[in-house]
Amino acid sequence: MTQPSNKRSVLSAVVNELAQANGVLARRPNTRPMPSRDTIVEIVEALRSVLFPGYFGDSELEADSVRYHLGNVLDEVRRKLREQIKRGLCFDCMTPGPTCDQCDARAEEITEFFLTRLPDVRRLLATDVQAAYEGDPAAKSPNETIYCYPGILAITNYRLAHELYALEAPLIPRIMTEAAHSITGIDIHPGATIGESFFIDHGTGVVIGETARLGKRVRLYQGVTLGAKSFPLDEHGNPIKGIDRHPKVEDDVIIYSGATILGPVTIGHGSIVGGNVWLTQSLPPDSRITQAQSVREDFNQGAGI
Amino acid sequence: MTQPSNKRSVLSAVVNELAQANGVLARRPNTRPMPSRDTIVEIVEALRSVLFPGYFGDSELEADSVRYHLGNVLDEVRRKLREQIKRGLCFDCMTPGPTCDQCDARAEEITEFFLTRLPDVRRLLATDVQAAYEGDPAAKSPNETIYCYPGILAITNYRLAHELYALEAPLIPRIMTEAAHSITGIDIHPGATIGESFFIDHGTGVVIGETARLGKRVRLYQGVTLGAKSFPLDEHGNPIKGIDRHPKVEDDVIIYSGATILGPVTIGHGSIVGGNVWLTQSLPPDSRITQAQSVREDFNQGAGI
Amino acid sequence: MTQPSNKRSVLSAVVNELAQANGVLARRPNTRPMPSRDTIVEIVEALRSVLFPGYFGDSELEADSVRYHLGNVLDEVRRKLREQIKRGLCFDCMTPGPTCDQCDARAEEITEFFLTRLPDVRRLLATDVQAAYEGDPAAKSPNETIYCYPGILAITNYRLAHELYALEAPLIPRIMTEAAHSITGIDIHPGATIGESFFIDHGTGVVIGETARLGKRVRLYQGVTLGAKSFPLDEHGNPIKGIDRHPKVEDDVIIYSGATILGPVTIGHGSIVGGNVWLTQSLPPDSRITQAQSVREDFNQGAGI
Amino acid sequence: MTQPSNKRSVLSAVVNELAQANGVLARRPNTRPMPSRDTIVEIVEALRSVLFPGYFGDSELEADSVRYHLGNVLDEVRRKLREQIKRGLCFDCMTPGPTCDQCDARAEEITEFFLTRLPDVRRLLATDVQAAYEGDPAAKSPNETIYCYPGILAITNYRLAHELYALEAPLIPRIMTEAAHSITGIDIHPGATIGESFFIDHGTGVVIGETARLGKRVRLYQGVTLGAKSFPLDEHGNPIKGIDRHPKVEDDVIIYSGATILGPVTIGHGSIVGGNVWLTQSLPPDSRITQAQSVREDFNQGAGI
Amino acid sequence: MTQPSNKRSVLSAVVNELAQANGVLARRPNTRPMPSRDTIVEIVEALRSVLFPGYFGDSELEADSVRYHLGNVLDEVRRKLREQIKRGLCFDCMTPGPTCDQCDARAEEITEFFLTRLPDVRRLLATDVQAAYEGDPAAKSPNETIYCYPGILAITNYRLAHELYALEAPLIPRIMTEAAHSITGIDIHPGATIGESFFIDHGTGVVIGETARLGKRVRLYQGVTLGAKSFPLDEHGNPIKGIDRHPKVEDDVIIYSGATILGPVTIGHGSIVGGNVWLTQSLPPDSRITQAQSVREDFNQGAGI
Amino acid sequence: MTQPSNKRSVLSAVVNELAQANGVLARRPNTRPMPSRDTIVEIVEALRSVLFPGYFGDSELEADSVRYHLGNVLDEVRRKLREQIKRGLCFDCMTPGPTCDQCDARAEEITEFFLTRLPDVRRLLATDVQAAYEGDPAAKSPNETIYCYPGILAITNYRLAHELYALEAPLIPRIMTEAAHSITGIDIHPGATIGESFFIDHGTGVVIGETARLGKRVRLYQGVTLGAKSFPLDEHGNPIKGIDRHPKVEDDVIIYSGATILGPVTIGHGSIVGGNVWLTQSLPPDSRITQAQSVREDFNQGAGI
Q1: Pick from E7, E64, E99: which is nearest to C8 by CB?
Q2: Which residues pair with residue A255 across a beta bridge?
Q3: I need a surface site. Which of A184, C12, D223, F184 has the fewest CB within 10 A?
Q4: pTM (2 d.p.)
């Protein structure tokens, strides 16, 4: 058994080694605080209660107080979001000291503009909800999809994050979509562009990349990847950032579960892509494509294939 | 920088726009409260502690108090579940006013009947636990699968939700299976029918549709879809609800990871479906089917394929 | 409506049935407590704050207190982990009574040794972070991947759990990787061996089995399975435990989303495996393999394929 | 040592005895829920943030959102208070069943009227705050007394409770003043009548009875009792309720610490009552009264008097 | 301004000084844990819900589950109390090591015996509740005193603590009565002996010493002290413990607010002691005693006496 | 019953009235945040765990980690206290804008100096603990008084607050002593000066004023007031601040429960003041003083005096 004296040296030794560590994993002490994932989740939940009144948050509001409630929630969102955006801006900002006036001012501008975008986000989400109801025979009413469907949750987070991405708020949009990714398994990069009446059914494993562009009335099932196939490296071997590398999906396309579409290809409008297809080329409009015929074969003995 | 006077009008303007919004996203104020996801999760956790005594909940019970503990937990479940079922019933119920006697009475009936089903649910889950132990060489004991395997968690939620689905409780069963979906990535519709000794290994991305029917001793791996291929629309373009549209999987079938099986096809007993297969046709008993041979090819240059 | 007298008998009857249940689902009352999932998650989060100082936990530390903070966190980890490991050891231990000196001593040994491994774990994770930055054009800096990428979270949990697995702590490593599985959809068995500079992008649906061995600079995308194909049964029909049954992936291999590789095959160094491939055979070094050509076909009418 | 079998009978025996208990301590099961102390404390804290804006609750409000915040807080107070008042009314109400329409309607009326009284309560409290500042040389500003003085806290709870008492809401006013009693040691019955510019310094041990009437600019120190001396009994030996039995204190009276004044006597305006006085008779205006001269004496030996 | 280098030495210097401190304030590290005040408060609240069913704890129990609820609460009390009593016993116990079998066994005995005392405690409390109702004209019903009167709360804590004191459980009884002291300002030593039908009105400042003995139907008002006058010292100057040093109060005595009675005197049955009296001698039965006549005098000028 | 339209106007009307309120009760919106009572309580609790190691906070520390724990706690105290002191300074500071560099710098200075005072505070408290043990025959050990005696809690808060008062930190010291006042009923102004070996027994109702000065080995019982008798007003009728107006109590004085001593008088060393005495004059050393003889009299009939 370890002796007490050894125990002491174990703890001290590990502390010493870790305290001396440098390099990629260490942030400088005394720097400004990181954005708070918990607060960002609170912001998104508050906005969800504003976008879907009566479904989330306080569902017992009375007629004469709805306006007070909205104003109060948005004021709280405003303050919290401003602080989080500032932290995101400061994450890489080089200004020394505990505060940075430029980040403060920019955070306030972004926040104010973001608020003005909420009514449009709400209009888009109304089309998504209708698409969910029309796209799933198991849905009894549009109401039910608002309250129970992971796809609606993920699209809501994405649509909010996309507005912040367009305003060049760093980190915060990604944290918003990662929060939805963790809950739903749906990973939509906030930089992607997605038209109205979008529906993702079940959704676990869906990936939509940063430069993907989706038209109207697109429907995806679980496990669909709209990803990058390859990307050029710079002279240091690092990937060159910001290059268009993801698929364009035109209006009225359906992609079945597990299909993988990679690269800046175009899936023409009205196409249907079958499940588990691996696709790295463009498709003309109204295409139908499925996996090659499966084959029957003899398996090995034992308890598996 | 934004002026204070502008800030005031931003907030007011957004509040006004959102307060006037109508249509699909708005519930009427003053309606009865929504079911509570948090409470439903509490109910399921309480039931898990009853179904797997000593593993979940209070693991330090003494011999002379087990019965008190069971009775107390079930009484609390009874009250909470009755309230949640009532809210589910009221979600679409048209009776005006703050209460609805009919929903109250129906919620009580469903809850009482549901309680009587718990011993049978427990018997089924015992076969599932044994199947997990026998189906995974990495499992050291059945105990371990109860405590650590996401498949057991998802099947438990499903089996509880399925009983409420059969009793026609709206919304609540779906919220129960979505809770498991969020934790495990396994999405089993509460309407599906699944026989004893069912095992899902790893599980992320599994989807089992509303009208799927699975026999005994079925084993699925992660990413398996038992989904709908297409569904007829009514004259308004909405999907016709309630039609049989998902696979039937007979006894002793194994389906490997990523396989997609769509439509009301039948996978005959004893069959093995290989990974990543796309299947929209029935298979006779004892079939073995795998993806068509993969091909070697030259990839593009760069950091990817 | 159910009568009160019936209600009483319903509750009593269910309690009686459940209290009498025996067999696989029941732990004996009075046994020692189960490991606590919540505490294990706290331990991992505390270690994350130690491994990535400034990113997680208390991000406002000052220069003169870093060492105190590290020492304090590690001391708390030490006590909590020792208790949890003891519970894990006691889970199957047959010693009667409320305590077991042997488990106590063994838990202390494992914990002390584990602490000495943290600096090495930290060095490995630094290579993983750099690999994430280099492997994703969407990443603006290595910092961002530490804070936002689910792959980094899952690999961190795995690398910690793997150390405990190597020290033969039961249950706890599995609970650690399952915690990451639930958040990220990435399921890495703590027994797997994974070299430096490992990157998983997006990650939902990734499965890496107990006896898998991965070299350096391996990159995986979402939905990749490195699983078992079949496994031999013993004379009782139970799977024989501990047999090598998962793939070996050599250095510098990339595997695209949704690929399923089963069995103890070897993927030679420098190979690239395309998305959605089903592979049960070894590949020589520098292979390129993709799914067979997809086919266009006529779909059924209606709202789907 | 107690045997397990004995242990079992101990628990069962105690449960049986307690379950059979009847009489004064038992409420009938199935009755409507009790008022919630925690909720009533939340209501008072919410009102405190409305009455002293910027001191309590959310102190970072911005100019354009104060109105939204007020409206939202008052709406929440309205709903919670209505429910608590209903529970208070139902506490003794004999109507059977889970709800009582009469209590519902009365609770709504009381709540609405109570809200209209808040501006007047606020005006009174402003005079109390000024009196605290003027009455204590240790107070640096009126602000400080709002935030730190237990007397202000107790008077605020009293003034709110008094309004509900006047509206004949049962139980709730008493719970409000008891909450202040517990925090400050100041016990003001909600039925007492107290004029403007009231100040209690330190306050621990102050008691002001149900039928006490205090004028303007009264100042009390800790330990002052304004209580009942005796009260008549009815034919069953129970005290006759509602009889005037407490002191009347006219304007501009100061009562020093520990004075006990009992019975329906009158302390004339401008009087000063010295500390530790026992007084059961009226005083004319502008009286000065102190305890009889203390005496020096020889004490017993030892460590005390 | 302090320099960073100074800041570092400040923290280090203070840590060094405090770490070296010895003597009365330091417990040895590695000793067994202290009793937990929070847990003891939970135990008392659980017992309150058992002693006053329907008033505290879960007030919505149904008729068929009361027994389950009681059994479950008492089982939880049993486990928590056993642990806390063990910690109390270990607080001064000299046995080295992390556990002490003797303390374990004694804690179990005390706990079991304590449980058997609960029905008697309940019977006594029923008389106290009736006394409160009869002793206060402001009380509308006995129910109200159970729920709102600090005297009932303090007496309940005392009666429970007194049972543990009689069983010689160290520390825990005192923590129980101190919890009530903090809430109500009533400080009853758990060693005091108090007969049935005991009522304390308002209560702030009441002190009842360890060796006080009170008969039946005693009524006290706020600020009454039943304390020690002096106590002999041993040869080291420490007070000799355990000597009878507090008043005996016979049946049917009333003591008004602020009276101080010190020493092992006897207040004869039926006596009434007026407010603010200082009494260090015995009184024969049926005495009436009040403070000497107060005197009017001229006060100093200014804002006070 | 109130109509919905009326309800709307009630809420709006009250909001309008309250929003327009001005004057003493309103803080300007947009000002810097108030000190946080909860955080100040956390700071005091953290310091208590540092001053009484092993009794409060984490009681399971191991020998090799005490120093890490101390350093970590003090670092957290340092950051939190700096922020709270800054808020206190800003409470009245007139500098516009969201931050104030001068308050920042001053808060840092005060905090650093305060930390260096902790070892001395600890030495003083050790004498207080010993005095408690020696002053109460009911105390079994000094340990017990640390953990259970409200007097020790109140003195600890006072001694910490007094250091901050001496450093001229506004508001925070008062909030610290008010926190103890609320828990114990003991109200010690942070400005008072109190020598070593100070003991307050029971304590409810004790008041010690801002300019009181107490020597060594003073012992007080519950309900003792060391207050101001009168205070001069300035030309506006406001009390003149900062004048010496409270008693001086020399070494080795005992004051029994309920005694009221007012004004800048001196109680000579070695004196004993009996309970319930009203004293506004100085006493020479070694005095003994008690209340004038109480009188027996005939009471009124009924249930009281």
Answers
A1: E64
A2: A220, A273
A3: C12
A4: 0.92
